[in-house]
Amino acid sequence: MKRIKAFPTSFLLILVLSLALLTGCKAERQAELPIADGIEIINCGDLLPIPDIAEYIFPSENIICGYVPVPENHDDPNSAEIKIAVYIIPSTSNAPAADPVVYLAGGPGGSAVSLVNEFMVGESAFLRDKRDIVMIDQRGTGYSQPGLFCPEMELGKMEMQEAVQTCRDRFTSEGVNLAHYNSHQNALDVDLVRQTLGYKEWNLYGSSYGTRLALTIMRDAPEGVRSVVLASVFPPQINGMSEAPWINYWMLDSIVSICDADADCQAAFPDLAADIEASILRLAENPIGDLGAQDYLALLGERFGQPKTPQIISLIAHGEEEEILDMLANMGGGEEDEELTEELMAILQPVLSESFGMGYAVVCAEEYPFLEEKALPDNSGDWSNAVKEIIGETPEPYTSALCPTWDVPAAEELEIQPVESDIPTLILAGDVDIATPPAWSILAGETLSLSQYVEFPQLGHGVLGLHKCVSDVVAQFVDAPTAAVDSGCVSDMPVIAYQASEE
């Protein structure tokens, strides 16, 4: 789960450069809707009262921004109404296909609005070549109303349990029923948006939690779904809370396997598994600087596809503390973040922050009640009991101990079952994705009869926009979802290669 509490000092520089590049650039056409009666169209710039940032987020006057009303509870005809924020980015074609691509953000709790610029003018803009792009802030996120943000949990002014209780009480006093902020209701929102905007069919593109949402749509509201792209899959049968240790075992096993498969690396580090054990146990007993065992595992997760990973492991296992501190200082480079004022944080929250309210409403209903359910076999292997104990304490993406305070009803068993579908689906994975490992994507595809799977070397979480090969494969698929994609470009991508020594 991404938690943004600080404002990068490079943001304004990026903003200025982006605006300079965009000067004089206009989309070839205004975004259009088959039906416009059901959407409350608004001025995009009115969402953000900071003009320069608004112009960066919405880099064209031809984007349509608006709200679509939906029931808070689709199963109750007398339900209260909430609003879903949508952003329609026009195709660069003067005669676009009638079936747009709809983007479903990750999280749970992530917004789509934060990526409008990326899909308009960034590395994902290739999707505009033939189609409009519809971006949806899922219920409780971004500019959808209500926005389930919990600044109490981010400002650090109170203990976390107290912050959660305060945030929850605030939502309750505002009339929010957290029991309805889940993947099922979320999926029905997306289909109702499609109907309201007048699209006969469209193509889903989900990333991370957005893939779980896409799979839920495939199960609960498949009408109108022409094709589906699932990038970095988080399928419903995977429990993100209880499977956290599985990811660390997979990551450590991958490091050892990659080294052992290379003669030079194997010769330089003949027992890398033992070095990993020694480094973890050393830091568990005596952290070095700010680096403890859990921080170290997170560090390896971020870097295990990089050439010097075995050298880092060996140094931490056997090196002098001063050498290790020097290495960590060199690795830590980069600018510091500038803390947001509370006022600025409130303004930018829909763009920069996860919606903790939506996130916890989902995971506390769909994961917390099912912590004992495991979709993948035990992979702890031959690691020592001491290391297993440390890995067993891997921090959860969301903290299960907060769920009793959040107090939402458990989801039905259906919400943790594999989704079966014959909708054409393209499944994408990066082989160094430490958030949603490739095994999760492969697992999801087992019950999708018309699915294709492509794994990309040296790519991490999300994959779209990270390499031209990904864009080429996705473009092929969306154009012809029932045809086999040509993924030959994957063989031209560099694979992970560890350095045996300093070069």
How would you characterize the overall build of this protein?
By secondary structure, the protein is of the alpha/beta class. The chain has a domain of 283 residues: Rossmann fold (3-Layer(aba) Sandwich). It contains 19 helices and eleven strands. The N terminus is likely disordered.
Please outline the helices and strands.
Blueprint: E1 6-8, H1 11-22, E2 40-42, H2 51-57, E3 64-71, E4 81-89, E5 101-104, H3 116-121, E6 133-136, H4 151-154, H5 160-173, H6 183-197, E7 202-208, H7 209-220, E8 225-233, H8 244-260, H9 263-268, H10 272-285, H11 293-303, H12 309-318, H13 321-332, E9 337-339, H14 342-352, H15 356-366, H16 385-391, H17 403-406, E10 425-430, H18 438-445, E11 451-456, H19 468-479
Helix pairs in contact: 1-2, 6-7, 10-11, 10-12
Strand line-up in the sheet with most strands: 2-3-4-6-5-7-8-10-11
- Overall form: globular
Q: Which structural class is indicated by helix and strand composition? A: alpha/beta
Percentage of residues in DSSP E strands: 5-15%
Question: How many strands appear in the DSSP assignment?
Answer: 11
The count of helical stretches stands at 19
Distance between the termini: 36 Å
The top-level CATH class of the domain at 6-151 and 182-240 and 415-492 is: Alpha Beta
Which H/E pattern describes the elements? EHEHEEEHEHHHEHEHHHHHHEHHHHEHEH
- Strand count, sense and closure of the main sheet? 9 strands, mixed
Radius of gyration based on Cα positions: 23 Å
Instruction: Enter the CATH topology name of the domain at 6-151 and 182-240 and 415-492.
Output: Rossmann fold
> What's the CATH architecture name of the domain at 6-151 and 182-240 and 415-492?
3-Layer(aba) Sandwich
Task: Give the integer mean of the pLDDT values.
Answer: 91
Instruction: Tell me the CATH superfamily of the domain at 6-151 and 182-240 and 415-492.
Output: Alpha/Beta hydrolase fold, catalytic domain
Low-confidence parts, pLDDT < 50 over ≥5 residues?
1-27
